[in-house]
From TrEMBL:
Name of this protein: Bacterial FdrA protein
Amino acid sequence: MASLALPGTGIQELCSQIALAGEGITHAIGLGGRDLSREVGGISALTALEMLSADEKSEVLAFVFKNRLPKLCV
């Protein structure tokens, strides 16, 4: 399991719940609060997705974020 998230409690909660279920996490990557804005264009998310796609140990990917931005780049 790998997770991408904006900084904060979302990634912490996700990792805690996965651990409580007896599973492991290969990576937990914080993206920065404005990475998904149109101005930034998701550069950290795209870089992380590229890295994780090459990691054979990461079988599941969770993407956690709060939509606080007026316009997302997606």
